[in-house]
């Protein structure tokens, strides 16, 4: 009797007609074999193996360098279930339209069957998925990003409980590119792109869109959050999770190195992009990182902004769309002094005088988490880590203070729901436009966000002691366009304040938008932040917030009666508080 997985593989082979089928076991030998094949076809280029052992460069199609949100669909039976936050196609229509593109799509190619586990293999919260792909680059990337191969097949056994992901490069044309989610069937179809978020289906497609849909039904949360632990000099470690939109510094924050003025502090990394949050046996919220690797943004990564990542990517890493120096090493803007000459991300000769970027702004590396020096001893703990505080942060040049705290859980949910941020190169749309991005989940929530807010509110009553909720903004600028806050390692100064709040050790000032720190409680020793600048960073601009409240209202209105009444009440209460002058 074939297993449900074998039956599905047969069905897909009959449609896509691959030359042969390769079941991935995740072994070293298999990895070497696939890399060898890609070196031969030119899909990978070998980097300098003395300086970067086990590292390779991949140049993607120039039309395929970021997530394509306008080609990403949630195909629920009812349109309202997907909500105004998603593109929607009826399942039957989607299957007919995109099914036609999959017919014969793998002719002449190998079909890789990639079983994977999201989450530590022994975790009760982990999930199995299987991605079928005709891209060996995707297969080897999935080996780094997930627990791939044998452990996944062992965990699955003969069960039919796995997320089915079907992926083909197709012809890489954006005209025939679709990323479809069928959350009711736990199925993903992706064609026409080899780019991370579009093609590594365990990541955004499974661990966020499909998982968030299931999480609502099952009473947990699948979030676009990093997870870290902060160890204080007294040995106490406090765990937090923090949501930021793509390319807003999650990876850097997750592996932050404390400033010299904070001896005895240590930051422990658990994850840099996705958190699955479950109510644990003790009633608290426990987080696991479903991933096993990092898919980080290269530009701006250097020994100052993220020394832990620089140490991580020195081996066994795939670099995509970075520049190549004559020494055969990778280079990107902000890594170090520019080389006198290089090949740019498209393989064209480049010099610092070229007037163009050597690396694509969304160039990336894929690297194993276990190589990161700051990984927490708990990062693969089956039960996860207990979360004491949640953070929501956008990229905002003005208005939003460096940090403030929600009054309670419903207000915290409102702070997440009303987050907005300037767009980045992680998606193929205009960069720098402020858009609403609730919980940094706008591109990743697999269902109607009105229902999502209701679920978040409901989680407050499922958890014995809900985490405190904070908003942060590392990106506030002076009128001259200078960043007011140094960011990076110094962000720990802000987290320290939040931990002080968690443990009831610090007071705060009540303002209309939430609890704001007293300036003296944020340590600025050793950094160039004057008391006046600190005041600017913490200032609550009432007129600006009243104006922003108009945008919140407009955003909320799209959800009609799916928006929980409590969100409107929070919004009205904010406006009331802003209107009462003190
Ligand atoms: O391309 S990914 O979605 O994996 C990275 C990101 O945009 O967050
Ligand atoms: Mn992300």
Which terms would index this structure?
582 residues; alpha/beta; 9-stranded mixed sheet; 16 helices; 29% helix; binds sulfoacetic acid; binds manganese (II) ion
Task: Walk me through this protein's architecture.
This protein has 582 residues and is α/β, with parallel strands linked by helices. It has 16 helices and 31 strands. The strands form 7 sheets. Strands 1, 4, 5, 6, 7, 8, 9, 10 and 11 form a 9-stranded mixed β-sheet that branches. Strands 12, 13, 14, 15, 16, 17, 25, 26 and 29 form a 9-stranded mixed β-sheet that branches. It has a 5-stranded mixed β-sheet with strand order 2-3-19-24-18, covered by helices on one side. Helix 2 (28-41) packs antiparallel against helix 5 (136-145), helix 11 (409-417) runs antiparallel to helix 12 and helix 15 (542-557) packs antiparallel against helix 16 (565-579). The chain is globular, with a radius of gyration of 23 Å. The protein starts with a helix and ends with a helix. The model has no long low-confidence stretch (mean pLDDT 97). The structure holds sulfoacetic acid and manganese (II) ion. Sulfoacetic acid (SAT) binds next to helix 7 and helix 8.
Radius of gyration, whole Å: 23 Å
Q: Give every kind of bound small molecule, once each.
A: sulfoacetic acid, manganese (II) ion
Structural class: alpha/beta
Number of helices: 16
Beta-strand percentage range: 15-25%
Q: Largest beta sheet, briefly? A: 9 strands, mixed
How many strands?
31
Task: Tell me, briefly, the overall form.
Answer: globular
Helix content: 25-40%
Uncertain regions spanning at least 5 consecutive residues:
none
């Amino acid at each position: 009797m074939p297993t449900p997985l074998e039956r599905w593989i047969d069905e897909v082979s009959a449609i896509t007609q691959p030359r042969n089928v390769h079941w991935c076991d995740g072994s070293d030998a298999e990895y070497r074999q696939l890399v060898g094949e890609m070196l031969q076809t030119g899909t990978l280029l070998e980097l300098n193996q003395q300086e970067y052992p086990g590292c390779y460069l991949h140049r993607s199609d120039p039309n395929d360098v970021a997530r394509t949100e306008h080609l990403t669909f949630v195909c629920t039976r009812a349109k309202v279930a997907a909500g105004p936050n998603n593109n929607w196609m009826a399942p039957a229509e989607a299957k007919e339209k995109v099914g036609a593109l999959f017919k014969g799509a793998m002719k002449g190619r190998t079909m890789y069957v990639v079983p994977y586990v999201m989450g530590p293999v022994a975790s009760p919260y982990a999930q199995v998925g299987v991605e079928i792909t005709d891209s060996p680059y995707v297969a080897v990337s999935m080996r780094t990003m997930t627990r791939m191969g044998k452990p996944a097949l062992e965990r699955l056994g003969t069960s039919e409980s796995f997320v089915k992901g079907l992926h083909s490069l197709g012809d890489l044309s954006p005209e025939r590119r679709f990323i479809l989610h069928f959350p009711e069937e736990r199925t993903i179809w992706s064609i026409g792109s080899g780019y991370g978020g579009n093609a590594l289906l365990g990541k955004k497609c499974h661990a966020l869109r499909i998982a968030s849909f299931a999480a609502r039904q099952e009473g947990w949360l699948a979030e676009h959050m990093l997870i870290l632990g902060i160890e204080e000099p007294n040995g106490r470690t406090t765990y937090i999770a923090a949501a930021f939109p793509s390319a807003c510094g999650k990876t850097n924050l997750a592996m932050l190195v404390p400033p010299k003025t904070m001896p005895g502090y240590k930051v422990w990394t658990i994850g840099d992009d996705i958190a699955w949050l479950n109510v644990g046996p003790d009633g608290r919220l426990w987080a696991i990182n479903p991933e096993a690797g990092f898919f980080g943004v290269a530009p701006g990564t250097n020994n100052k902004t993220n020394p832990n990542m620089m140490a991580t990517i020195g081996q066994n890493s795939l670099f995509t769309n970075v520049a190549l120096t004559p020494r055969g090493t990778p280079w990107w803007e902000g890594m170090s002094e520019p080389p006198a000459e290089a090949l740019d991300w498209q393989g064209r000769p480049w010099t610092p005088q070229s007037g163009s970027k050597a690396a694509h702004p969304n160039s990336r590396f894929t690297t194993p988490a276990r190589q990161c020096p700051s990984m927490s001893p708990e990062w693969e703990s089956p039960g996860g880590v207990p979360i004491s505080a949640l953070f929501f942060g956008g990229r905002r040049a003005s208005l939003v203070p460096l940090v403030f705290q929600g009054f309670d859980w419903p207000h915290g949910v409102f702070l997440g729901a009303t987050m907005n941020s300037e767009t980045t190169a992680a998606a193929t749309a205009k960069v720098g436009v402020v858009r609403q991005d609730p919980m940094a989940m706008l591109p990743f929530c697999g269902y109607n966000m009105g229902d999502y807010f209701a679920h978040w509110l409901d989680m407050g009553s499922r958890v014995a002691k809900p985490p405190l909720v904070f908003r942060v903004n590392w990106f506030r600028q002076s009128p001259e366009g200078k960043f007011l806050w140094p960011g990076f390692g110094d962000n720990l100064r802000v987290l320290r304040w939040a931990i002080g709040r968690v443990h009831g050790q610090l007071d705060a000032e009540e303002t209309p938008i939430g609890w704001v720190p007293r300036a003296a409680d944020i340590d600025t020793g050793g950094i160039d932040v004057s008391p006046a600048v600190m005041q600017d960073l913490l200032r609550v601009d009432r007129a600006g917030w009243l104006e922003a409240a108009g945008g919140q209202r407009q955003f909320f209105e799209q959800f009609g009666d799916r928006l929980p009444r409590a969100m409107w009440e929070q919004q009205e209460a904010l406006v009331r508080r802003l209107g009462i002058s003190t």
